[in-house]
Amino acid sequence: MENLADFKEIVDLIKDNGGEAFSRCFECGLCDTVCPWNRVTTLSMRKIVRQATFGLTEIENEEIWRCTTCGRCPQRCPRDVQQIESVVSLRRIATEYGVFPTPVKPVRTASASLVAEGNPLNEERSKRADWAKDLSVKTFAEGMEILYFPGCYLSYDPRLKKVGRATATILSRAGVDFGILGAKENCCGESIRKTGEEELFKRLARENIKNFIDNGVKKILVSSPHCYHTFKNEYPEFRVNFEIVHITQFLLELISQGRLKLNKEYKKKVTYHDPCYLGRHNGIYEEPREILKNVPGLELTEMPDTLADSLCCGGGGGRIWMETPKGERFSDLRLGQAIGVGAEALVTCCPYCITNFEDSRLNLEGGEAIEVKDITEIVLETM
Question: Does the structure show a pLDDT above 80 at 55?
Fold first, then answer.
């Protein structure tokens, strides 16, 4: 792009958008060795970083949109280059100049839907609480113990509504005092922020924060690791500090307190997938496994690339809305790993992971041999 050809202009833009850390890179290449893209094709984060340092990155380059923000390269980087923040800074610049990934429609559609309806799925805001119909779920009122924030996919996606319903049923049976905000909820904004839409993220965050404060919310229970991450780590940028709890943390707490008893057997061999934004980004590894270990009859086995080395499903960084060609889907590799250890069910606790794994299961040879389950579905089945 000619108007970005000037060296000083692009360097200044990168710095203004939080990309100063580029200059710390000394090209060791560790980021490339752990990047999941290099299992299916080629991507050099090192090259992107070095080009950006000298103002040579072309914002039309599709490679800046490939990063799933999985967290593997910052984990290994000896110079704290902050690759995720650096790539997002490039995406902000691209967004400012109207440059988007190809095909552009999915991301632009998600953005427009977030503006109009508060969700990225082009669904009506007025129907956001329909997933809870006939479950007697209350509207949150000040003084309640917990606000349950199911997030966009659990509110609208047919497969993931089952997870929202399972969660609400468990909470009710355990006697938890909770409610939802329904149509007052907005998307948390985490993923659209990672695509470079900073102003839209701020708009969504401010509206959510206002609703939380106006309704007297103090403790928020979430199902999505992406909601967990942004509420816990990014919303404090707005000088608020709510107590944020992921469903796996809360379920284990209920089990430990004796409020939730798992009595029925689940006689299957299962494996657990660590979502990037629950594990690497927030250090929650043991709680989901402890829940599964409390299920009678369940045999838990580990896959390769687990815990801090977990293989990304491919949905983070806004990639959930972008096209990924067949043969380049991390979720296909992950499902293959689960099948490889003899698992009858692949269990996780992230809507993006479930979406991608279900897609892979339907399109991968031998995928019918394994189920994809959210951990709440197994808990409900064994109560």
Answer: no
- Residue 220's contacts (CB-CB under 8 Å, 6 or more residues apart) are 146, 147, 149, 212, 231, 242, 243, 244, 245
Write down the pLDDT at residue 26: 83
The CATH number that domain 259-382 falls under is: 3.40.50
Is 370 within 8 Å of 332 (Cβ atoms)?
A: no
For 380, the enclosing helix (H) or strand (E) is helix 375-382
Tokens encoding 1: 């792009």
**Is 259-382 in the same CATH topology as 105-253?**
yes
Query: Taking Cα atoms as reference points, which of 155, 230, 169, 146 lies closest to residue 376?
Result: 169
pLDDT over 70 at 254, yes or no: yes
Averaged confidence pLDDT in the chain: 92
**CATH class of residue range 105-253:** alpha beta
CA atoms of 210 and 335, how far apart (whole Å): 40
CA distance 216 to 219: 9
Number of other residues whose CB lies within 10 A of the CB of residue 198: 19
DSSP conformation class of 190: H
* pLDDT recorded at residue 364: 83
**pLDDT tier for residue 367 given thresholds of 50, 70 and 90:** confident
Enumerate the domain spans of the chain. 2-96, 105-253, 259-382
CA distance 274 to 257: 25
Tell me which DSSP letter residue 232 carries. Answer: I
